[in-house]
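[Q] Does anyone have a clean structure-token version of this?
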Amino acid sequence: MGIWLVTKVEEYQVRSLTHTLAYSTILVFSFALAGIVCVILFFVSAPYGRHARRGWGALIPNRLGWLVMESPSALVFALLFYLGSAPRNIVMVIFLGLWEAHYLHRGFIYPFSITDGKKKMPVLVMLMAFGFNVGNAFFNGWYLFTLSGGYPATWLKDYRFLLGLSIFLAGYGINRWADLRLRSLRKTGDTGYYIPYGGLYRWISCPNYFGEIIEWIGWAIATWSLPGLAFAVWTLANLAPRARAHHAWYREHFPGYPRERKALVPGLW
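[A] Here you go.
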């Protein structure tokens, strides 16, 4: 019986080590993939929103597309919190709350706040975003709630947590304010685009993207984790090229567009 138990423990340890190594390898590979995707997006804008165009296959209504591709982030992360083996304490609850604050809104509120319900996006874009969000929520959730072994309550006083939380909340606030400012420019059913003013729009074209990038940099610092860093890198890789495309689009379609504005970083770029 003792030999059987030892054998089973050794088998479990080998499986766990194998899973951990595979997990880490995929994460490291994702950094290189993020760089490749970033370069591609500087030349090919994702075909939805103001950059929508033909030639990308079947289309799906915007609201349904956003719901399908964003909601898995909230659901998968919450499931991994429930199933995780790491001790659940106030730190874990805060991490869950921060993640869900972003993705419950993005997946279940934002789609129904879109003023123009007639616009569509390619199914291909929805599926790619769906796949990324499932994987991203899995890697972050599995690490935090299982692989990490848990964070002690003293983590709440750690400078990394305090700094990361502050940055996350600042980014979240900027992102939400900028989105609301954009939405206020349209009435229900309006399909037009307008120049936003006020706040960070004085200096950059895309404070919503600026805020989201800051948000997930804060997450990476607060969790002090490789999955968190990977998410921050992917956010930058996706949104920096799109901010540049938005900025160029504004200048092309509005001759009087403020020349002093930058695309994403005030005074720089």
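[Q] Thanks! Anything notable?
[A] The first strand starts at residue 59 and ends at 61.
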